[in-house]
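Appendix C. Worked example: DNA polymerase III subunit delta
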Amino acid sequence: MFDNILFQKDTCTELKKDILENTLAPSMLIHGAALSGKTTLALELARVLTCRERDELGRWTCSCWSCRQQRELSQNQVLVLGSSDFRTEIKVCRKYFDQARENQLESKHLKILLLVWLRSLHKVLKRYDEALWKDGKTKTDKERKARKVQEEFVELLAKLRPGDIFGQKGTEETKKTMAQSREIIFQDKKLLDKDLDRCQELADILIAAIPQGIPVQQIRQLQQWSYRTSETCKVAILENVDAMNQAASNAMLKLLEEPPHNCYFILTTRRKQGLLPTVLSRLRLFGLRERSETEERKIVQKVFRTSGTETLRELFLTGEQDFSQIQAECALFMQSLLEKRPFFMIKSSFDKLHLEAFLQNLGLALQKECIEQHRKAEGPLAEHNFFWYQRFLQLGRKAIEQHKIYHDPAILLLQNLYLELLHEGSTEN
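Step 2, the predicted output written as structure tokens:
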């Protein structure tokens, strides 16, 4: 059970114990730093809870119909809500699948990497479950366009699907026929590339219409879905719940106060302090630790069948920039703050800034700095460092939102952030 959740043994052991003893809470919060595996754990927990094979409960290779669908994220008893960095995950998964084709890896590995890429696309598709769309109605041009391409997207995903290589059933002759038919998709490179590229084009259209955060309307739709009768248990996964507004949080609170029978709610966040205290009080908390660079490399090697040395952070938190460049920019930003330099002195270093990637890495760097300072200091200085970090998180999220939604220039937003932090530091000192 939870064998594919790497380097989070303590939390996985705790969850396994609750499941086997039938004491698992109906409402849970999985919290931890970026790339600690929150969504992966939530999806795996959902698979275990909906598994139909008691003798194989929790095995990643379980062949029951529910687990086969869950591995592809097509199980209709599981809803997934919330925004995420879909494009980066899709890009990284495609990169390693193309790399495997170029290196002519054996067919089994190619199929696994294709499934990993398709799974990243299904995460987008899950946001379009009919249960979350009231009467299928759309309000914006982006939503209407997304709904139009959805059918083509589903058909392409089905066409590319290499089959469940873990849970095939039937006679040996049937398996051989199925395997031969699936090899066809790898034979015509140009046709395969065309289908892969079209999938990503359609995914971009769908991603553009996914709302930031979780709208209150979706929480209300979730409530209706959760009370529907079902032969199996249902699971709702809500990603990055700290991005919910006040109305959505209040609606979620009502649902958690009277959770329906046989339905589980799994919430995830990087910042549990961003949730209402009343919401937090109704959740069982499971924390994930930040994994080391060595552990991150092992995860990349295992998931993507590579012998490379990239870390998860280098792959997922850099955007289009080189990781060493982002590290240098973060170091310059922090050193300039400490020395209280005017922003115009360092502005030229951030002209080609990928704002979200920079802020994510800067947040991790600031967090480590605050923890280190907290170990060395007591009293006001330690409290100041914590306050400063919390203020950065608040300003950083606001900057990313303004950049994504209102298209404010990244360099201007970064300048405002710098001046705010400089002012906070001067005030507190």
